[in-house]
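Case study B.
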Amino acid sequence: MSSVAIVSQKTFLEYPPKANRIPGNGAVWVGIFSEMSEFALMFMVYFVAKVHYQEIFSEGPLKLNTLAGTLNTLAMLTSSYFVARAMLSIRQNRLQACVYWLWGAVGCGVVYLIIKYWEYRWNVAHGIEVETNLFFGVYYYMTFNHFLHVGWGSGAILWAIYRLKSGAYSAENHEGLEAIACYWHMIDLTWIVMFPLLYVFR
Amino acid sequence: MLNSKSINFIWGALMAVTIGSAFLAESGETNLLVTLLICLSIAFKGRMVVDRFMELRNANRYIHFSMSLYFYVVPALILAVYLLPDELARMTTL
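Model:
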């Protein structure tokens, strides 16, 4: 037990993240900045629409299911936490622990997708559809876009688990895993903005 | 440096802020204080994920700056939309 702890600590100290580095790789950051720009454009559309249709955008959030939005936020933040723990584990060369944390992140992604699907069904049952008004049009466009990102982001984490089990990653070399981790955090970051915009801000 | 204790604490703080936001949503209140709390929650959660979970705090400074800026600009726009809706509507009318 103590020898394992010593080895783990040594590995962690030998391979900490270097200062001023590009986490993951340059390519993933091109993707992340493109996605952040795409979501920024959606937020700009939301802001412009809100100032032009103030009443519709004030009433809209009150009609949405706050519980679903809150649970989805908790799921996304927890998935990000699991991914951060996975990165910590890989640096300590605790590969099995890394796999478990990544499965936790995938689980949260699946929970998110199920809640969002249920929320869409709930919306329809309460007469909230894309054509209901401009607020709900923006809501569906933004949230469905995010829904797709969570779907393929979960797929990317499954790929990372497969690679990890194949021996592709270690404490010394885990660039691909870190790139996927950064991409997943980006998906969480966009939801951090979307939740208050759609469910809280009036 | 990232460690499990600090990550656990940050996760707890993010959960607490989210639940606080949910209570704000359910209260149905609309005023400057609520809007400021929304802005602060976005800035706090965004910066925590960027700095700690994504570990950009000591990473490439341009990436860190750009990602951090996002979580100051969006809250500033929310505040602007709350305080100056008619002026912004005039500015964005073709």
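The radius of gyration of chain B is 16 Å. The remaining cases will be described in the next quarterly update.
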